[in-house]
Amino acid sequence: MSSLPRASELGLIGCHVCGLVCRDNDMKDAACPRCESPLHRRKHASYVRTWALLIAAFILYIPANFLPIMRTVSVGDVDDNTILSGVIELWVKGSPDLAVIVFTASIVVPMLKFFAMTTLLLSAHRRSGWAQRQRAKLYRLVELIGYWSMLDVFVVALLTALVQFGLLSLVEPLPGVVFFGLTVVLTMLASMSFDPRLIWDSRDTDD
């Protein structure tokens, strides 16, 4: 069974901004006719830039977990909470729904993104033909969940705005939120920098 033709073989090129499929006329400084963004076959230095952003995000994720992310003040009690202790605090104070949201957004989602992007980068570097369709779907999933990665920061901001929340009398954001926010931004930039067309570059195909 012969493989499907590649876009370059059909003389087609996709816009990285709006997704419009255009004719590839081999012209320098070609622009998308719809959004006028520059057209190029591949994202420049995609592999190196994605690795750099992903590693930086992982480094910042460490203090994001160990530094306090919020301070809860109740009657006669002041607690500085990290992400995990904040989840426990929310659960104990009678807010299990918010505890689940914070745990999912701040622990589960970042770890899944680190694992998924590392898998994509390593397989792309090896020019592996393994599960290419599944890896393409994995990349689209990473892009999709990236829009919800700031939920943890939004929850802390919401709790800060609500002076009264159940048994909690006051909530203040702490430096851990900054590191987590930077982690989210860098992982989003990493997924944006990754060129999904690298997935389809197996060893028996040309660049």
TrEMBL record:
<feature type="transmembrane region" description="Helical">
    <location>
        <begin position="174"/>
        <end position="194"/>
    </location>
</feature>
<keyword id="KW-1133">Transmembrane helix</keyword>
<keyword id="KW-0812">Transmembrane</keyword>
<feature type="transmembrane region" description="Helical">
    <location>
        <begin position="51"/>
        <end position="70"/>
    </location>
</feature>
<keyword id="KW-0997">Cell inner membrane</keyword>
<dbReference type="InterPro" id="IPR051800">
    <property type="entry name" value="PqiA-PqiB_transport"/>
</dbReference>
<protein>
    <submittedName>
        <fullName>Paraquat-inducible membrane protein A</fullName>
    </submittedName>
</protein>
<feature type="transmembrane region" description="Helical">
    <location>
        <begin position="144"/>
        <end position="168"/>
    </location>
</feature>
<feature type="transmembrane region" description="Helical">
    <location>
        <begin position="98"/>
        <end position="123"/>
    </location>
</feature>
<dbReference type="InterPro" id="IPR007498">
    <property type="entry name" value="PqiA-like"/>
</dbReference>
<keyword id="KW-1003">Cell membrane</keyword>
<dbReference type="Pfam" id="PF04403">
    <property type="entry name" value="PqiA"/>
</dbReference>
<keyword id="KW-0472">Membrane</keyword>
<dbReference type="GO" id="GO:0005886">
    <property type="term" value="C:plasma membrane"/>
</dbReference>
